[in-house]
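Give me structure tokens for this 204-residue protein.
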Amino acid sequence: MKNERLDIKDIIMTVLMAIINVIVCAIGGITGFLPILFVFCSCLYGLLLGYAYMAVCLKVKKRGAIFIYAIVQCVLGLSPHFIIGTLASAVIAEIIMEKSGRESKAGMIAGYVVMVVGSLCLAGTVYPFVITKQEMEKTLSGLGMNSEGILSLINVPVMSVLVIMCTICSLVGGIIGYNVMFKRLNGNVAEYDENEDDIEERIG
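Here you go.
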């Protein structure tokens, strides 16, 4: 019976991939000087973060890996709403993958969409800008960002477009990330098997 418990290698792999995505998101933070890009940066993240996320799904394939990934991602925002939104999204993603099967491409992609939209879009952008708008204005001003320009974009139509676009971008990013990482990881396995067969033939 296959071991379903996470081992040290699985945890290290998951944490490293999560750190890569945290770095990507941190670099994306410089878009604060361009208001429209800052508000819609979760769409960009949806396109870019799929590679590392899918590497975890395809390589680890064990219960709890995405939750660990989410814990590391919480470093991006230590506010309670972001932590709760991120961990809740991870739980939903884990349930989706559990129900669809850990090998399911659709389950992995759906889980990725939930993670990006739930964590980076809803908890990371919509909630703080809509619910805690005054606090965000102080935070952005303190960071030297164009708070007036950014907050001028916060309204129901723009937020609705943001959620729709983030969902689409996450879906595209998830599909591309899955296809690239599946080919890469399985290609390495195939190459290893071929080399192993050659060695056995030479020995024989």
